[in-house]
Structure formats: structure tokens, C-alpha cells
Amino acid sequence: MAIEFVPDWMANLEEEDITFIRNFLLASGSLKEVAGLYGVTYPTVRLRLDRLIQKIKINLDNESDPFISLVKRLALNEKLDFDTAKILISAYKKREGSVL
Questions:
Q1: Number of structural domains the chain divides into
Q2: How far apart are the C-alpha atoms of 18 and 61, rounded to whole Å?
Q3: Residue 18 sits in the same domain as residue 54
Q4: pLDDT tens for residues 45-97?
Q5: Among residues 36, 57, 65, 85, which is most buried (max CB within 10 A)?
């Protein structure tokens, strides 16, 4: 049975993230085996998995503001550093609070 519907959380992932998920599943969730497959250390794979989990959580958070989600995605994809992301989100929340 082919998948007829791709959930938003999956559709918003990059191809390399989907490949990582596939490899993780094929390795029965063994981070050690995935580390060997990619030729990296266990902590590197753990960090990659943690970032992927964060990406999925952001996509699942339907109540999240689109701007805040964008800033978080940029930080997770290392297009923006986390300190700058926090400053932008904080300033945005203050501005939104004063508008209401």
C-alpha cells in the first residue's frame, strides 16, 4: 500500500533528514550502527537526531506563530545562531504583546 498522504511534519523535512530517518529505522534505532554507517561519532549522530526531533516538534506545533517557527527553523538549520534567534523571538513577542 503506497502512502497517499504525507503528513506536514514529514513534507517539511529536507531530503537528507528523510534519508537519516530511513537509515535510523533500518538500523533498528541503533545510534552506534548509524554512526558507523555515516563514519561519524556517536555524539555526532545523537546531536543530529536531537536536531531532527526539534524540527519535527516545530512542524507539529500547529499553534506556533509562523514567524517564530521560521526563526526556530533557521536556528536549527544553522542559518541563524541561537542567541540571535532568542533575541528576535523575544523582541517579536514584546511587539505582539504591545499591539494586542
A1: 2
A2: 19
A3: yes
A4: 999 999 999 888 877 765 567 788 788 878 877 888 888 988 998 888 888 77
A5: 85
Q: pLDDT per residue over 17-49, tens digit each?
A: 999 999 999 999 999 999 999 999 999 999 999
**Residue 52 grid cell:** 531532527
> Is residue 72 within a helix (H) or strand (E), and if so which, with residue range?
helix 66-76
Asked, for residue 51, whether it belongs to a domain, the answer is: yes
Cell numbers for 83, please give them: 542567541
Q: How many residues does this entry show for the chain?
A: 100
Of 74, 62, 68, residue with least CA distance to 92: 68
Q: Three cell numbers at 20?
A: 537519516
CB 90 within 8 A of CB 80: no
